[in-house]
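Aim 2 progress update. The chain analyzed this quarter is reproduced below.
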Amino acid sequence: MSDTPLSERPDHRIKKERAHDHTLGLRNVLNIIFMIGAIIGAVLYFFTDHTTLGVYIVLGAMAVKMVECCIRMLR
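Predicted structure tokens:
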């Protein structure tokens, strides 16, 4: 039998603190770049005559998102 009193909660119910994610700041910046790029690209595509430029901007934003996903998976 353990020495833990019955009035104490067992460890498995307490959420353990995660180790500090050193890539979190970089991933947040990449996500912000992705969101801004996607919005600008969509606005250019749907509301101006520069549809090709809008497509290129959205594709660039998607490339940034793929980099962020790779960082998340490799962590």
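The two ends are 39 Å apart (CA to CA). The first helix runs from residue 24 to 47. These observations will guide the mutagenesis experiments scheduled for the next reporting period.
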